[in-house]
Amino acid sequence: MATKSLKIESIQIKRATADVWSAVNPVLGDGELGYDKTNKVTKIGDGSTAWNDLPSSNGSVETANITLTPTGWSGSSGQWTQTATVTGISANSINYITVKQGATTAEKKAFIEAELQDGGQAKNSITLISASETKPSENICCRVIILKIGV
C-alpha cells in the first residue's frame, strides 16, 4: 500500500477587492468560490461564466461536525458509503468536507486513508463514499462546511 500524506491547515477561497475582480474578470471553476472584500459579496463559479456576469450569492455559511463510524459503512471495496445527518444541508447547498479542527494525528490519518468523496445530499443529510480498498475501521471525525445558496 502506498504511503499517503496530506497537511491540512485551512480552507481559503479566492478573494480580492471589487476593482481587481472587475479588471481581471476570471471564470471561476464549477462550484469554486470567490469573495469580493470591498462589497462583502460571495460568488460561485459555474465553470463558464466570467466574474462580472455571475450573480452574487446572498447565502450563508454554517459548519457542523460529524463522526463516520466503522459500523456505519455499507457497500464493497472502493465504494463504501455512509449517510450522516447534518442539519442545514439542502439539495442545493454546496458542502465541503474536511478533517475536524483540533483533530489528533490518528484522526487526520483516518480521514486521509478513507479517501472521502461526495456521494450526494438531501435535506439534512449527506452521503459520503470511501474510495479505500478496505472498509474504514476507525472513527472519521469530519467538519462539514455548508454554503447555503439564496437564503
What key attributes describe this structure?
three-stranded antiparallel β-sheet, 2 helices, 11% helix, 37% strand
Could you characterize the architecture of this molecule?
The chain has helices at residues 18-24, 105-114; strands spanning 14-16, 33-36, 41-44, 56-57, 60-68, 80-85, 94-99, 116-122, 125-130, 140-148. It starts with 13 loop residues before the first strand and ends with a strand. The protein is mainly beta. The chain is elongated. The strands form three sheets. The chain has a four-stranded mixed β-sheet. The protein is built from two helices and ten strands; from the N terminus they run E-H-E-E-E-E-E-E-H-E-E-E. A hairpin with a 4-residue loop joins strand 2 and strand 3. The protein has two domains: 14-57; 60-148.
Task: Outline the fold blueprint.
Blueprint: E1 14-16, H1 18-24, E2 33-36, E3 41-44, E4 56-57, E5 60-68, E6 80-85, E7 94-99, H2 105-114, E8 116-122, E9 125-130, E10 140-148
- The helix tally amounts to 2
- The ordered string of helix (H) and strand (E) elements is EHEEEEEEHEEE
Provide mean pLDDT, rounded.
Answer: 87
Specify Rg, calculated over alpha carbons.
17 Å
Q: Unreliable runs, pLDDT <50, ≥5 residues?
A: none
Main sheet makeup: 4 strands, mixed
* Count of DSSP strands: 10
